[in-house]
Amino acid sequence: MSVSTLKKKKKDLEDIRTAQIAALTQATHTTTEQLVAVERDLSQRVSRHEKALENFTRLDLLERRAAYSLPTDTGRTVYLPQTARGHVPMLRPVLRRLFPARYPVEPWQDWPFGAIVVDKQAMWLRVDGPGLSVAEADVFIALLATTGGQTEYMVSLSVWELLAQMGRSRNANNAAQLVTQIERLGATYIKLYNDEGQQMGDKLPMLISSKNGDAEGGSKTIASKLDARFAALYADGRSNWTPMSHLMLSKLDGRAKFTRWLALVLSTYGAPHRSSVRDLQEYSGIETGRQSDFRRDLIVACKILESDEVGLLAPGRSKLQKNHGNWLLSIEKRQTGARFDHRLEMPALVIDACSLWLHSSPERD
User: What is the DSSP letter of 238?
Assistant: First the structure.
């Protein structure tokens, strides 16, 4: 059914509802038999058009989502996809594999962590670096929230300000850890490979950062920005990324690394969803422990994520089930994801992903 036909049927339904309201408001001048006849006729016509209106609404929403879920270029700045306030766009492979609950034992060297689609071609993601954990995810997500989705925008924040954004206590120990975590992000590089195993362009730093000296109160000032090429990884629309709530993460105890890690991974799935416990244990980086202990930790973490204070999972819906010898974690989220919110105030074009990736320098001005 064409869009024009759907629009016409939507108009028909609006006319029907207007007539229905008019009939009800004039009921004092209408006999009961006449009113029943009008209601019957209107209900039959409404039922024929409701499905068409539903299809129209879905199609109209998909058309709007397609534009808003892609990275855009204003001619001055490349923007990541736009999300509702309180959320940031995060790559699903990054959330599932780059930020485990524990640091890896060995540094990453050409380590494969996922695949994405760029311009309808499968691309393989590999990473070099010292290794990251959920602690770096907190920092990265907070910086994404600060930039408002802009790349190449230098953000200058004091360590105290960044700690407050992440919901962490402002003390010397946390400040020192934060500086180290930003250095780890800056030393981590993503590489893109095609199906033939050829590396596409130069490696991409997760974060370009520097220290700008001391701020008021003795806190260091950290300057950081995203490389514009990072946006190319989002170019296949919503299938590559998910809205991540930085407000929800800030409510979780900074010491509860396992719970914060689970929140990252579960945010990449729809609702309801069943995840293999074996896969979750691999993502977590806790592969050496007993699975029975890991399952117990999963249930404890899910209870925290179900609480009204956090609000990620639906209360009482998280379950562990055994299926053909394999344990599965079933969850249901309270929200399937934030709606898109296009906030750019200037004309913007969807970026050419391959061109952006291959021809942009790592620190383009």
Answer: G
Residues 6+ apart with CB under 8 A from 116: 91, 93, 122, 123, 125, 233, 236, 240
> Alpha carbon of 44 to those of 18, 39, 41, 55: distances in Å?
15, 9, 5, 18
CA separation for the pair 207, 190 (Å, rounded): 10
pLDDT tens per residue across span 33-50: 665 666 666 666 655 555
| Adjacency order of strands within the sheet including 208-214 | 155-158, 220-225, 208-214
Name beta bridge partners: 189.
Answer: 128, 205
Beta strands 72-73; 208-214: pairing state: unpaired
Would the CA dihedral through 227, 229, 235, 240 be positive or negative?
negative
- Neighbouring CB atoms inside 10 A of 296's CB total 12
Query: 5-14, 68-77, 233-242: lowest mean pLDDT where?
Result: 5-14
What is the distance between the alpha carbons of residues 127 and 357, in angstroms, rounded to a whole number? 16
Helix (H, G, I), strand (E, B) or coil at 167: coil
Query: Which tens digit of pLDDT belongs to each residue from 318-357?
Result: 999 988 888 999 998 886 555 555 555 555 666 666 666 6
